[in-house]
# Entry
Amino acid sequence: MLASSSSTAISLHPLANYNASATPSLNPSSLFFSSSYSYLSPLSFRLHSSKTHLRITPKKGLRVSCSTNEPLKVMISGAPASGKGTQCELIVQKFGLVHISTGDLLRAEVSSGTEIGNKAKEFMNSGRLVPDEIVTAMVTVRLSRQDAKEKGWLLDGYPRSFAQAQSLEELNIRPDIYIVLDVPDEILIDRCVGRRLDPVTGKIYHLKNFPPESEEIKARLVTRADDTEEKVKSRLEIYKQNAAAISSTYSSITNKIDGNRPKEIIFKDIDSLLSQLLKDKTAKSVKPVLQTENCLDQASSNEEKWRGIPTRLNNIPHSREIRNYFYDDVLQATQRAVNDGRTRLKVEINIPELNPEMDVYRIGTLMELVRVIALSFADDGKRVKVCVQGSMGEGALAGMPLQLAGTRKILEFMDWGNYGAMGTFIKIGSIGAKEVDEEDDMFILVAPQNAVGNCIIDDLRAMTDAAGKRPVILINPRLKDLPGSSGIMQTMGRDKRLEYAASFESCYFFRLLYYAGTQYPIMGAIRMTYPYDYELYKRVDEPSGKEKYVSLSTFKERPTIDEINDAFLGKPRNKDKKASGIWGFLSGVF
# Structure
């Protein structure tokens, strides 16, 4: 707590020595807070809007009820290749709903070893379908969690049978709307059958909609095994049978959307439906009642909630909900970047369990993140190679960074599900050009980093050159030069190495902000998810003992330390501003 009567100078810096790539690495300038600022409560991590709310204490009598609005509950259905996955992603981005799919639930429950997961695993191991009651139990448990209750939910591709639909009805689980993406069979078949794979680059083409650039490329294209007309028609028939079985249950709330249009036009219709539905739900929740207690603070708090960002990030170990949030947040950003054709990407996420600078670092959390990303792309039919660097150096100087010791063994012994993904769609490899095979569609590199006296960048560059236009994703890379005993590493080719390291585009960035030299309390956070701007937030304590995060600013590029300090001080942004004092002098010298 800041208790002195005079202004107290504190220096703000992010965890792990924050450094914006566009500026030299300088110590941050001081921030000054008046003594009225005090830090009282345990940490909570939520995003709030920057609106200012007037505190009002109403008198007894007739007034408007301020009970919180009921969130949206949405089900969506669509045949294979209907574009359902894309629309789910857009819905989550716009409305912040919790996205729930049974495939993800099965993997999560089995991986976590829960009672439901163990029961499901018995059936999966014996080659039998998981019974409806087990799947429904998984869905019910997920829907009962606090995030789904607070933010609403988007149930993707479930229920798939009349029995499943009736089970949800009996449990009083019913959506506000049932969206069906309607695409003609011939279009769906054409979307699948017309797809072609370039085995050299890993790029996906479509003979009509996205033809190859040259005859040379066209000659080497191949058809994937699951893109034959026979298999596509079989999947369509199964979908139609399931859709017909549950149509009567949701007939009164069904909305068919023409899915044979550009994705932006399709989402415009969905956005209109959900926005109107949300407006109607809000109107119904506001009614005059006789009430004597003051609940305006509760409504204000709900309105300002940082949707989706977990709380208590300094509490270790993180809860399963916190981990799952970040896994999903990283995955969605990575998927958007890959779908937009980005091929050189990096993920930088420094929550305490994923920051090797802290003594609470957990390698298992990093491995889980890698598994989630790899399995998701594998589910889309991509062949993913997960790579961990091997020993560097020779003789007595051979070794590898301590952070990565044993990582490959952990990956090999992890539970990758019972779908046969490991060894077929997912393989484990090292870093280097020889690890790139023609069948690989993309590469996920686990925390590639330099060691004292040894540099991984040459092997990394050789690998990316061999990968060509196929995506290479770095998870928490640490590619700064480290000093060698001879000093050679810092001088020879340093500029080229740093230039190459900077060529990877950030698709996800998350970092907490602390007092300088401390890891408590959390002062704020910086977050970026592709293709959106960097967002800077400040944590503010409230008299009630709670806390909130207020949005300070957004930046097209990663903010510099001066920009962060100015935003915390409320200074207007000045792009031409130069660092002052000794830091300005040193910046000029460098």
In short: Residues 263-285 form the longest helix (23 residues).
